[in-house]
Design goal:
Helices cover about 40% and strands about 15% of the residues. The protein is an alpha/beta fold. This is Rossmann-like and DUF2520 domain-containing protein.
């Protein structure tokens, strides 16, 4: 089995590393700039690097994974040419499988790893769910086989379910990370060490997987502690965008809690 990687960003980087470590040959790496593709060459010694999206004659692969940003896919596809009968899959959480239907002579699919990727941070592929959708039985079997080489969690998932998973992931990961960034900024401006938050954050994440999160909500919004809320808003007076976000989240928490409901705790 040979795999071609289209893209050179965060997802592509970890795919190249993970596939190579799993003993799968990455035969070609494409990027719009040759330098970006070449930067991944050390992780896949057998790979050809290229900035030409005609893959028919340069190190043909059995599977091509399109690991490019969602907004780049529609612009990329009209310029790509793949070997006949190859399986071509995008890695998007939101784009439809049908987006690839215009590609001639190939079978298509989705190979969506449910994880946040940064080039600087190594990841454990065995723990990452890989969501699969395919246009044919052969493409499905091929992508499942590839997924199982990387991960212990390979899930067949139609597009509508995948989009819901991606939405949930944005709340759980992207928005949460942004809030942690704001929290660190608050501490830094007060000249306080950011690692003060580490035990609290770790406990919050662990508890979220032990109990339904809404049932263990804590904090001034849940307690309807208007004095504390007002004090926090005053501290954010110089940051109106954060002040507004605080108010929106407070209202959302209170909308989930009964007026005189049980108080889960007093911390934070």
């Amino acid at each position: 089995m040979k795999v071609g990687i289209v893209g050179a960003g965060h997802v592509a980087t970890h795919l190249v590393k993970g596939l190579t470590q799993a003993g799968i040959e990455v035969s070609v790496i494409y990027s719009r700039t040759k330098a970006s593709a070449a930067a991944l060459a050390p992780y896949a010694p057998a790979a050809i690097t290229t900035d030409h999206p005609d893959f028919r004659a340069q190190a043909p692969a059995d599977i091509y994974l399109l690991a490019v940003p969602d907004q780049a896919l529609p612009q990329l596809l009209p310029h790509t040419l793949f070997p006949a009968r190859a399986v071509v899959a995008h890695t998007s959480g939101t784009q439809a499988l049908e987006l690839l239907s215009s590609l001639p002579g190939v079978e298509t699919g989705v190979f969506y790893p449910l994880q946040t990727f940064s080039k600087e941070k190594e990841i454990d592929w065995r723990r990452i769910p890989v969501c699969i959708e395919a246009s044919s039985q052969n493409a499905q079997e091929t992508l499942v086989h590839l997924g199982e080489k990387l991960s212990d969690q390979v899930v067949l998932m139609p597009g509508e379910a995948r989009r819901h998973v991606h939405l949930a992931a944005v709340f759980a990961c992207n928005f949460t990370n942004h809030l942690w960034g704001i929290a660190q900024e608050v501490l830094q401006k007060a000249q306080l060490p950011v690692n003060l938050l580490e035990p609290l954050v770790q406990e919050t994440v662990q508890k979220a997987f032990q109990f339904p999160p809404f049932t263990v909500q804590t904090g001034p919004a849940q307690r309807r502690d208007e004095n504390t809320i007002a004090a926090h808003l005053q501290l954010l007076a110089a940051e109106p965008q954060y002040q507004h976000l605080y108010q929106v989240l407070t209202q959302s928490i209170q909308a989930r809690q009964p007026e005189n409901g049980p108080v889960s705790g007093k911390q934070a």
